[in-house]
Amino acid sequence: MIKSRSSVYIVENDIFENKCGGIRIGTNYSASVIIDGNTIRDHTGPDIFAINSSEMGLTDNVKTEIETMLTKIQFAEERLEYSRTPIITNRNIRRNNNTGVQHPRKAVQIIQTCCSCYRSSFQLKKCSNCGTATYCSKKCQKKHWKKHKHMCKLLHKEYTIQVQMKDTKPVMEPGNVRRFDSSLKGIKDGPKPNPLSTKKFIVKVQSGQEYGCFNPNKMHTLYNRSLTLDIKLSNPELYYLVNECGILAGTALSTKKIFCWASYKCSSAILCIHTDNLPPFQSW
Ligand SMILES: [Zn+2]
Ligand SMILES: [Zn+2]
């Protein structure tokens, strides 16, 4: 992750298997960035994502949007137009990236030690519920439960997060219009899921603000492509799912998003979010 004023030479590295992609470059003002001779491979996200590179080619209205935003904050003299374009040579090998989201069981690499004290032992016992987390003792397992309890459910092959619709809020107050980044394609189009049907449809779940501290009760936004559903909600299981399996969203540098299959239950009183099978990454 390169941003603000990073002067960096990334040369001849093997960069692999990051959930959010290989190298991500934000607005970097006047510092120079050279990326040369690296192998960037097997990432869930993109190989190199740079908001101000000739490769990305930001559309003019996005540029204007970012510039307007930057003039309002500090260092107004360092606007996007002064940001130096990173030098990315053609000697970088990019292979098997953008592989999409993974099931939590794949995304969470459990190292073969006790998950609580990180000691290795020949007598590690598995959590009987998920069969994945390992512990050296009952004491360690008990101590770790507060951290593990939400992940434990997500580590099941099949798990459905259930959200009571009455506990959610609309994203916008009535009458206000929601604006989306112009890089999102096909938003507001597509079929409208029938609230009385149990048929599955794809939703996008997005974590809020950048650089928030650890907070499983943090608000997330959730919507489907046609925006028939567009809600804010807090749910610890969803928080862990987005954190562990989500991908960095659009031009943001730390907010994550994930696409999931969802369905209604009990005449749309309950929204089910299924984690057994995740849909391919969407453009909207
Ligand atoms: Zn232990
Ligand atoms: Zn478990």
Automatic annotation (TrEMBL):
Pfam families from the UniProt entry: zf-MYND
Any one of the GO CC terms: nucleus
GO MF, any single term: DNA-binding transcription factor activity, RNA polymerase II-specific
Keyword annotations from UniProtKB, A to Z: Metal-binding, Zinc, Zinc-finger
Family matches, as PROSITE patterns: ZF_MYND_1 (PS01360), ZF_MYND_2 (PS50865)
MYND-type domain boundaries: 114-152
Protein's recorded name: MYND-type domain-containing protein
Species of origin: Mytilus coruscus
Lineage: Eukaryota, Metazoa, Spiralia, Lophotrochozoa, Mollusca
